[in-house]
Specification:
Blueprint lengths: L1 E2 L2 E2 L36 H25 L1 H16 L2 H14 L5 H13 L5 H20 L7
Antiparallel strand pairs: 1-2
Helix pairs in contact: 2-3, 3-4, 3-5, 4-5
């Protein structure tokens, strides 16, 4: 929406998801409708900042909804305990489960897996790197990617 040179965005109500927590992140929203009229020009940095804010709000809503459900709360506590003090295989499995449950809401888990895959010679060594990479590949091939060519 645009008024007198100011761009406003419609925000969802607190606690309401923009993206529903689903494993198929690429199907979370319906395709955008085509418009015959040109869209207003908005600076990309403003759009990026707004998208980051909306994503942050959605992640907070996801974490809040997870902590209010008893089984999800105990599950989340169990997974976080494993990630902090489990064996390498247990940590990788827990991170992969988090990413598989809702990749859009568990970006930190995906970034942690990516960091583990990039380490190589540092802490953890080559074994950790290869196992983390295998987890990312398994997730991506097993439904983490759309069944089409990426643009």
């Amino acid at each position: 929406m645009k008024r007198a040179g100011v761009i406003t965005f419609l925000l969802p109500m607190p606690g309401v998801f923009i993206f529903q927590p689903v494993s198929l992140w690429y199907e979370a929203l319906p395709p955008l409708p085509s418009h015959e009229r040109p869209t207003p020009s908005v600076p990309p940095d403003q759009l990026s900042a707004k998208a980051a804010q909306l994503h942050h709000n959605d992640v907070l809503a996801f974490q809040t909804s997870s902590s209010t459900k008893n089984s999800s709360s105990s599950e989340a506590n169990f997974l976080s305990k494993i990630i902090q003090s489990g064996t390498l295989s247990d940590r990788l499995s827990a991170l992969t489960l988090l990413v598989q449950s809702s990749p859009l809401h568990n970006i930190r888990a995906l970034e942690t897996l990516k960091g583990m895959a990039e380490r190589g010679k540092g802490k953890g060594g080559r074994e950790e790197s290869l196992k983390a990479l295998r987890c990312i590949v398994d997730w991506w091939v097993g439904g983490g990617a759309p069944n089409r060519k990426l643009k």
